[in-house]
Amino acid sequence: MRHCRQAGGDGRAGGSHRLVIAGIQLGRRAMKPTRKQADARAAKGRQDVGEGQAAAQTLTTNQGVPVGDNQHSLKAGLRGPTLLEDFILREKITHFDHERIPERIVHARGSAAHGFFEAYKPMTAFTRAAPFQAAGKITPVFARFSTVAGERGSTDTARDVRGFAVKFYTDEGNWDLVGNNIPVFFIRDAMKFPDLVHAVKPEPHNGMPQAASAHDTFWDFASLMPETSHVLMWVMSDRGIPRSLRMMQGFGVHTFRLVNAQGESHFVKFHWKPKLGTHSLVWDEAVKISGVDSDFHRRDLWDAIEAGEFPEWELGLQIFTEAQAEGFSFDVLDATKLIPEELVPVTPVGRMVLNRNPDNFFAETEQVAFCAAHVVPGIDFSNDPLLAGRIHSYIDTQISRLGGANFHEIPVNAPLAPVRNNQRDGLHRHTVARGRVAYEPNSLGGGCPFEAGTAGFVSFPQAVEGDKVRGKPEKFADHYTQATLFYESQTAVEKAHIAGGFRFELSKVTVPAIRERMVSSLVNVSKELAGAVAAGLGIALPAAMPRVQPQPAMPEVTRSPALSLMALPGDGGIRSRRVAILMADGVAGESISAVQAALQAAGATVQLIAARLGPVTSVSGPALEATATFENTSPVLFDGLVLPDGEAGVTLLGQQAEVMDFISNQYRHGKTILALGASAVLLQRAGIGAVLPKGKPDPGVLMDAKVKVTSVTAAFVSALGKHRHPEREAAQTAH
Ligand code: HDE
């Protein structure tokens, strides 16, 4: 029998904690070996199955018994009954029967990656948290992005909030910043969370709809809970349908505390800003993507990291004092409110780069356990009543989801910092605790482990006073001012999309009274918005819903440009953008190859699409090979479109319904289109001109009748870098 060699990675994590920084791979062992790691390392080999060693390995049972035949069960005679004594078959089937664990009650659908956080500068004046102690300080991270309502196998492009959870493996233990891509929440007291989730999940009698808020129970709840007004503006906007997980912001949502080494505290809000800018889908596109690739976001993240296009976000902090907070027109403990950046600027403090895909989806992405309770010295909680419920909920949920109290030992959850305490035993315990001392104080263990005193985590000693009550502070009762702020800070096209979002969702509501109640609430946000929604639903504009607080405090800002998706356009590059080039026999290969090479040189991914896979005859230049077909892909999977030159090829393309569909979808969704030479006729046939109805040139439609391929390609690259051309839509809406 051949002996298995140990698979890659360090002893504990099976390679899952290898840290890749700027191309250098560091083993975790090299960073800080612990007793626990040493134990696990000794037990290694039989736990990991690495691809590289496959040839040298013999198949065994879970007891390490070599398996001679993995094809047949043990039978009494070739045609006889299967025997109960076949322990190999029974072990295999029993393990298989138990392969699934309960999915997360919310955020079940997620995608994740490893990476690192790098601090720009020391933030010691504000916090003693390890990641912020020195410029250039590197802290490994694991980030998971998720939709909220859908089940584990649901579509990625549902209209929903996205989870944005980051586990920092700091020198002083794990810090989980478990945020969302939207800075405000639906409710402000944990007491309402189960109600919110029951309302948005598939309706209990028939289990529908999946991953969608467009149904009666959600809007029944929302219309009766006007505190949802603000977050609804965000979710109905294009923020609810991001183009990519790499192109969305993240927010800590709650007010937290930073505490420095002197014990001084400041309030803080956390912001992640994507280097690629914030970009979204449009609704028609999102719906179609759900059909053609329900893994769209997961694939996009995976492919980008595999291609070395590591997504990056900048972490920014809004730091403010309690005295400042007292003066704000809103309450910073209310999670349905944000702090406008114009009021408290966002200070950039570092960057997060995701540079390694998980080795195993289940072991890492599924088993990662984020907990809002996981903070480290230097980070502390505020009295936000929503946050308090979360501090309880996450550990509780992991105990049932991951099968017991030892989920912190699962490699992806295990801290880098050493773990030493007297907690013992429980289901699935991996640590082999030595000695007879499992209590404190002790003398038999030399008093170890010792308390850290003020060097350890010390809760900020905030004074507490007041009666024991169930209730809310006065400023919480303003439900509309910031919803209006958000709406009024959007561009015209964004406003139209918000109205479209409400219109679509409420048109799916079957109870007219719910629709009407919701529109009456919207009147308090904006008459313009409520009017547009009411018109789409075919109802008269109802009277405004009575406000709990008729005269809220004057807001500090009434327009916040930072709230528009357009505020973060990115660097205008096209790295990792997807471009389709359509082909048929008789196209001009020379110009296609030139455009393809230029796009790839700029970092884009190019697919050559034809009616079938394989070679396509070209009238000039090199032979071309189709890498996708009109049948196996779809226009909605591409950011831009190139139509070829070559009359014979163009004629063939024009005869195919899928091609005309491709062109009109790309145009309708605001994408950039380049028609080389003869293919201008395809645009004409689709009714597409290079000018907008009001006579201005369409910045996203390029034709090269007389221009050189190189210059028209350069124009295409720069137009593609704008992501989408809302001018086209604005012109369409105006007509
Ligand atoms: Fe969560 N939330 N949540 N949540 N949440 C969970 O934890 C909960 C809230 C967020 O990728 C659960 O492991 C309560 C706000 C993310 O694994 C659960 C309340 C924010 C993720 C839970 C909230 C979030 C979760 C489900 C109100 C943004 C996915 C499974 C008091 C700041 C993390 C799990 C991942 C997951 C409870 C509200 C973000 C049940 C009780 C506000 C990103 O524990």
Architecture blueprint of SSEs:
Blueprint: E1 19-21, E2 24-26, H1 28-31, H2 35-42, H3 87-97, E3 110-119, E4 138-147, E5 162-170, E6 173-180, H4 193-200, H5 216-224, H6 229-236, E7 250-251, E8 256-259, E9 265-274, H7 283-292, H8 296-306, E10 312-320, H9 322-327, E11 347-356, H10 361-366, E12 379-381, H11 385-401, H12 481-488, H13 492-507, H14 512-523, H15 527-537, E13 578-582, E14 587-588, H16 589-601, E15 605-610, E16 614-616, E17 618-620, E18 624-626, E19 628-629, E20 640-643, H17 647-654, H18 657-668, E21 672-675, H19 680-685, E22 701-703, H20 709-720, H21 726-734
Report on this structure.
The chain contains 21 helices and 22 strands. It has 4 domains: 2-52, no CATH class; 88-213 and 242-409, Catalase core domain (Catalase HpII,  Chain A, domain 1), CATH 2.40.180.10; 480-566, Hemocyanin, N-terminal domain (Up-down Bundle), CATH 1.20.1370; 578-734, Class I glutamine amidotransferase (GATase) domain (Rossmann fold, 3-Layer(aba) Sandwich). Helix 4 runs antiparallel to helix 5, helix 6 packs across helix 13 and helix 14 (512-523) packs antiparallel against helix 15 (527-537). The longest helix has 17 residues, at 385-401. It binds CIS-heme D hydroxychlorin gamma-spirolactone 17R, 18S. Residues 104-107, 110, 144, 146, 163, 165, 178-180, 185, 190, 193, 253, 335, 368, 370, 386, 389-390, 393-394, 397-398 line the site of CIS-heme D hydroxychlorin gamma-spirolactone 17R, 18S.
